[in-house]
UniProtKB/TrEMBL annotation:
Segments passing through the bilayer: none
Feature: compositional bias, Polar residues: 481-493
Composition-biased stretches (Pro residues): 464-477
Region (Disordered) residue spans: 140-159, 460-493
Protein name per Swiss-Prot or TrEMBL: Amidase
GO MF annotation: an example: catalytic activity
Species: Tectimicrobiota bacterium
UniProt cross-references to SUPFAM superfamilies, sorted A to Z: Amidase signature (AS) enzymes (SSF75304)
Amidase domain segment(s): 27-445
Top-level taxon of the source organism: Bacteria
Signal peptide residues on this chain, from the entry's feature table: none
InterPro entries: Amidase, Amidase_CS, Amidase_dom, AS_sf
């Protein structure tokens, strides 16, 4: 078996060969390292390489096998970590100059579980600065490049994790997903990715974006490989109350059952209109394949889709601003991403608006429960567009809305979602199908995705790792505010520069005079967009169900 064949193996197919001695962990590791050294100067997937650690771990895995001990389905598997997850003794930069010298003294529980399951850690991967954005183009360490066309973005914010697996640098990787940051690079890079139910994996030891949205999740070549990785990292953590107390179910328990008898919802609103025609065509073909296999398709409406995007901003904004306030006070000029503007503007989102948005999430969860009483899962394209050129993404926030169009609404209600490749466009670029389902039912989503993947094993294709065609024409989706039908200013009064300056001073945050005008305009635009939430009737939405969804059952959720 060639070195490249080892590097592009599936985890599920390779580990039995490692366990029986046919392949050595050190062989697999060196195959991955050789590809990193040959191609990562172009791809730029890694911020920190941990080859010495990986070689030591691989030798330990070989010694364990010699003693008759196998750690399980990740024994000797080289994996990569998004560089916002702590690994003791190595920097956690979050893609930012601000944290480039930050070296944690402990390892994140998700990473520790991965190592205990037998994984070998290759390094820390690139990402959109502080995970705010969907392209991966805005990193202090430069953008990662898509192995299918190195002129194009990988998607983000887990950009390096997607690029590393797609390029054969690692057999799997961990990312994080707030509004789609596992599913998006998985889709653009032709991989499987899973965002588990909120609370499925501990967030401890991870640089936060939105604490009530963040989810650590896997990217891998196949759906089964992603499920294996999720199995390894899932479970209770006393340091993260959202993880609960119960041990996770077997995410591969239903993987071979097929889809006959399942009812799958295809949204009639929001998710399909205006999409890139090739992407839409590939996703619809995947939906038809599941119908051919015996699933029953029904048309559904996802009522929270538009305002779910608004609630996302109203919650993630203040949660991210709380983390970033010390940096904004002292090191504002060191940010490289326009995401910093969002962090700073979010300092001025009123507290009542944050509470309103969390109550809105309770309403949206009730709407989701009503929908999932009718269907077993919902099918949408993962991303509405083909991967854009990096040159068009260097202001990553401009592309955030279209790229996260289909993923963020499901993050808002905390449900699990699986991304599976569903083909390639005429330019040779991957497209993806998103499968979202009930809280706690990742195994069912894995079952559905694996059924499609068995019929269409797109994962067996390998990227050229070379430049390709010119970028597609610019494309846009109307903003959530324009779709909401709510007036632009709503009930959020405009703030003056003097008010913004006074509020900033009260927070001990100095705003440079030359930035005050732009900040004031940005704050007013942001707060005006959030006024769309004023149209909701939230009188019966008193409990923040969004923070405790891991064991939520649709039959126990009140009617919307």
């Amino acid at each position: 078996m060639s070195a490249d064949s080892l590097a592009f193996s599936s985890i599920a197919g390779l580990v039995p060969r490692i366990a029986n001695g046919e392949v050595r962990p050190t062989e697999v590791l060196e195959a991955c390292i050789a590809r990193i050294e040959a191609h990562d100067p172009l791809i730029n997937a890694f911020i920190t390489r941990t080859f010495d650690l990986a070689r030591r771990q691989a030798r330990e895995r070989e010694g364990e096998l010699a003693r008759g001990f196998c750690r399980g389905p990740l024994h000797g598997v080289p994996v990569a970590l998004k560089d916002l997850l702590d690994l003791e003794g190595f920097p956690t930069t979050a893609g930012s100059r601000i944290l480039k010298d930050h070296v944690p003294r402990s390892t994140a529980p998700a990473v520790r579980r991965l190592i205990e399951a037998g994984a070998v850690i290759l390094g820390k991967t690139n990402l959109q600065e502080f995970a705010r954005g969907g392209t991966g183009a805005d990193s202090f360490f430069g953008p990662s490049r898509n192995p299918w066309d190195t002129n194009r973005t990988t998607g983000g914010s887990s950009s390096g994790s997607g690029a590393a697996v797609a390029a054969g640098f690692a057999l799997g990787a961990l990312g994080s997903d707030t509004g789609g940051s596992v599913r998006l690079p998985a889709a653009f890079c032709g991989l499987a990715g899973i965002r588990g139910t909120y609370g499925r994996v501990s967030r401890s030891g991870a640089v936060p974006l939105g604490r009530s949205f963040d989810a650590v999740g896997p990217l891998a070549r196949t759906v089964e490989d992603a499920a294996i990785l999720l199995q390894a990292i899932a479970g209770p953590d006393p340091a993260d109350p959202s993880t609960g107390r119960a041990e996770p179910p077997d995410f591969r328990a239903e993987i071979g059952r097929g889809v006959e008898g399942l009812t799958l919802g295809v949204p009639s609103n929001y998710f399909w209109p205006g999409y890139d025609r090739e992407v839409e065509g590939l996703a619809r073909a995947a939906v038809s394949e599941l119908e051919r296999q015996g699933a029953r398709l029904v048309e559904v409406e996802v009522p929270w889709a538009v305002l779910g995007q608004v609630a996302y901003a109203a919650v993630v904004g203040p949660e991210s601003a709380e983390y970033h306030l010390p940096f904004l006070r002292e090191r504002r000029e060191e940010y490289v991403s326009p995401g910093a503007d969002f962090f700073e503007q979010s300092l001025f989102i009123p507290g009542w608006r944050y509470v309103q948005a969390q109550r809105a999430r309770t309403l949206f969860i009730r709407q989701a429960a009503a929908l999932f009483r009718r269907v077993d899962a919902i099918l949408t394209p993962t991303i509405p567009i083909q991967p854009p050129a990096i040159a068009d993404c260097l202001d990553g926030m401009k592309t955030w809305a279209p790229i996260s169009h289909a993923t963020a609404p499901f993050s808002t209600v905390g449900v699990p979602a699986v991304q599976v490749p569903c083909g390639f466009t005429r330019l040779g670029l991957p497209a993806g199908l998103q499968i979202a389902g009930r809280w706690g039912e990742e195994a069912l989503l894995v079952r559905i995705a694996a059924a499609y993947e068995r019929a269409h094993p797109w994962w067996k294709r390998r990227p050229p790792v070379a430049p390709g065609a010119p970028p597609p024409a610019p494309w846009d989706i109307p903003s959530p505010t324009s779709q909401s039908g709510v007036g632009a200013t709503g009930r959020s009064p405009l703030q003056t520069e003097e008010q913004i300056k006074a509020f900033a001073e009260a927070m001990n945050h100095r705003v440079a005079p030359e930035r005050l005008d732009a900040l004031t305009a940005g704050v007013n635009r942001l707060n005006a967009s959030l006024a769309a939430l004023d149209a909701l009737d939230l009188k019966d939405c008193e409990r923040a169900e969004t923070l405790d969804v891991l064991t939520l059952k649709v039959e126990n959720v009140p009617e919307a």
